């Protein structure tokens, strides 16, 4: 493997997108070519090790940045880049690099990588959790439409997966598409009628449509079933009653 060293100054490579580096940086493209010839098990092991190293280096860099007078070690490539060059199907690296690209003002490149997660085998380690993390990241970044695209693609791969059903309904609600969201949220409730979080999402979807009579029953049940440390159903029930009085 080509040795990668840290520097103390930002390099142009840190500002380029993954695809550009892969096509224009000889060292980076050589990494992809080198590991493409190796067995899948060795490629995955190398990607895992490189990924963990890059994340650790990022944490160290963040710690240095908080110390006055300390130089911030800047890696040759952003976190996850080398791991994804080594193994283009390594899910944690797809997540990290996709979010990086999107967050750096390249949403099309970021979405392309994040959507690749949905094309991996459902047997991929932590596959559902990683896609859910991608969806949450996109929503936190203000990209509700991208979140919908992600969950819609994930549902094509596994139509009955409850986390994807919930995620798609939630994303549609956040996109102000409550009419489209409700059938998905109803399906989620049918799959898990005693899940307070699912009932809460469904109830709030109804509230945003002004269907207050139905909301009251749904959120009251969500409150009854909620764990002691889960206060969102109660908060939404109080909020819904305020909205109802103003309607």
Task: Describe this structure as you would to a colleague.
The structure is a single chain. The chain is mostly helical. It has a domain at about 1-95. About 70% of the residues lie in helices and about 0% in strands. The chain contains 14 helices and no strands. Helix 6 (about 90-105) runs antiparallel to helix 7. The longest helix has 26 residues, at about 40-65. It is elongated, with a radius of gyration of 22 Å. The chain starts with 11 loop residues before the first helix and ends with a helix. The model is unreliable at about 1-10 (pLDDT under 50).
The gross shape turns out to be elongated
H-E order: HHHHHHHHHHHHHH
Measured as a percent range, the helix fraction is over 70%
What is the SS-derived class?
mainly alpha
Q: What is the count of DSSP helices, taking H or I runs of 4+ residues?
A: 14
Total beta strand runs: 0
What is the gyration radius calculated from CA atoms? 22 Å
Q: In what range is the share of β-strand residues?
A: under 5%
**Largest sheet at a glance?**
none
Distance from N terminus to C terminus (CA atoms, Å) equals 65 Å
Any low-confidence stretches, pLDDT <50, length ≥5? 1-11
Average pLDDT, rounded to a whole number, is 89
Present the secondary structure layout.
Blueprint: H1 12-15, H2 18-24, H3 26-36, H4 40-65, H5 81-86, H6 91-103, H7 107-117, H8 127-140, H9 144-157, H10 162-174, H11 178-191, H12 196-208, H13 212-225, H14 232-246
């Amino acid at each position: 493997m080509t040795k990668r060293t840290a520097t103390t100054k930002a390099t142009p490579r840190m500002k380029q997108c993954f695809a550009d580096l892969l096509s224009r940086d000889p060292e980076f493209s050589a990494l992809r070519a080198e590991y493409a010839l190796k067995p899948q098990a060795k490629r995955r092991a190398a990607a895992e090790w490189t990924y963990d190293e890059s994340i650790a280096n990022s944490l160290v860099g963040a710690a240095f940045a908080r110390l006055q007078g300390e130089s911030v070690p800047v890696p040759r490539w952003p976190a996850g880049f080398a791991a994804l060059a080594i193994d283009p199907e390594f899910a944690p690296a797809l997540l990290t690099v996709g979010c990086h690209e999107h967050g750096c003002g390249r949403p099309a490149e970021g979405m392309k990588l994040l959507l690749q997660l949905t094309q991996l085998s459902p047997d991929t380690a932590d596959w559902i959790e990683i896609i859910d993390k991608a969806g949450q990241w996109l929503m936190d970044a203000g990209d509700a439409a991208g979140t919908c695209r992600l969950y819609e693609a994930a549902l094509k791969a596994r139509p009955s997966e409850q986390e994807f059903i919930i995620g798609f309904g939630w994303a549609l609600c956040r996109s102000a598409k409550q009419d489209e969201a409700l059938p998905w949220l109803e399906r989620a409730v049918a799959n898990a009628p005693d899940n307070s979080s699912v009932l809460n999402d469904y109830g709030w979807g109804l509230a945003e449509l002004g269907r207050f009579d139905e909301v009251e029953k749904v959120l009251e049940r969500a409150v009854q079933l909620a764990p002691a440390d889960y206060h969102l159903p109660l908060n939404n029930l109080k909020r819904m009653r305020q909205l109802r009085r103003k309607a």
